[in-house]
Amino acid sequence: MGYQDNSIALGNKCTFLELCKCLPLVQVLKISKPYMKFAKGSMQKLPTLLVHFRILFLDVCFLEQDELSDALSVIRSSPNLEKIKIEPCLKHELCYRETCKDLLDLQDYSGINLDHLEELEITSVHNSAPEMEFLKLIMAMSPLLKKTRIKLISDVSMDEENKMLRDLLSTTLHHYLFTIDGDGLYLVVDEKGKFCEDSFQYAFNALVHANDGDKKKDNGKWQKGLVNDRVGEDSDIFKMVKVIIQHRYDPVIIFNFSKRECEFLAMRMTKMDLNEDDEKVNMETIFEFFGHAIR
């Protein structure tokens, strides 16, 4: 929506929401800079979900509060997005040099849900604070994100690029419990560090139930047999890893208080084939490449 030049013909005006209602089957949408400037904050409160959008292209200046707010509102109202591409405006470099006060508080958009987003692309990144906060927000709310493509401007130094990557690749920890003979994971500490008491109570009750039999503490040590000898899909470690893969919780750290059980479970893991066919091909290519490189 919008034109390549900076002029927009004025006539009968309609809101962004009214326009979307006329496009019920559109799955790919591009909003250009002129329309973002023309809309000027009119997209900040969208009462209905734009569930049909799958791919969204946005021309936006990160230092323009109204434009950034509109962009985030469209994203928040499009829960089924699979790809987002951001193209900063041509005058973004000029805006970047100017001092901008009262930048938009992105914490107001922490409720964004992007459970289907798989690809994020942003061009002409200046490594400014609004850009970084935007990237962190979108990446944190996209559990299925597979590909992130960030194109930096030439003025960004190597040190700045390395720091930027460290900031973006830092993983927010979630803490889960898996009980013996359990069928699922219990979230006990969320990404904000909040303790989930109800979930912990469910996990604790399941743990007590699992330990009611002959698996009880004896003089401060667990009896031999706490780790069951079942193999394959019946083993606890298999079920836990299966849940992790199905819900895309990886990367994960599996922690156990018993050293003996850690060693036992690690040996069990060596017998599992967790790679798909295309991943096996990629691994073979990588090993072959490095094999030639070190010769």
Key terms:
295 residues; alpha/beta; 14% strand; five-stranded parallel sheet; single chain
- Measured between the Cα atoms of the first and last residue, the distance is 55 Å
Principal-axes shape call: globular
Estimated structural class: alpha/beta
Number of strand elements: 9
SS strand fraction: 5-15%
Q: Which regions contain 5 or more consecutive residues with pLDDT less than 50?
A: 3-10, 214-227
InterPro entries: P-loop_NTPase (IPR027417)
Could you please describe the fold and organization of this structure?
The chain is of the alpha/beta class. It has 2 domains: 16-169; 175-269, no CATH class. 37% of the residues lie in helices and 14% in strands. It contains 10 helices and 9 strands. The chain has helices at residues 16-21, 33-39, 65-76, 92-97, 129-140, 158-169, 197-210, 236-246, 259-269, 277-293, and strands at 28-31, 55-60, 83-88, 119-125, 147-152, 175-177, 186-189, 217-218, 221-222. The protein has a 5-stranded parallel beta sheet with strand order 1-2-3-4-5. Strands 6-7 form a two-stranded antiparallel sheet. Strands 8-9 form a two-stranded antiparallel sheet. It is globular and about 70 Å long. The model is unreliable at 3-10 and 214-227 (pLDDT under 50).
Helices and strands in order:
Elements: H1 16-21, E1 28-31, H2 33-39, E2 55-60, H3 65-76, E3 83-88, H4 92-97, E4 119-125, H5 129-140, E5 147-152, H6 158-169, E6 175-177, E7 186-189, H7 197-210, E8 217-218, E9 221-222, H8 236-246, H9 259-269, H10 277-293
Brief write-up:
This protein is α/β, with parallel strands linked by helices and 295 residues long.
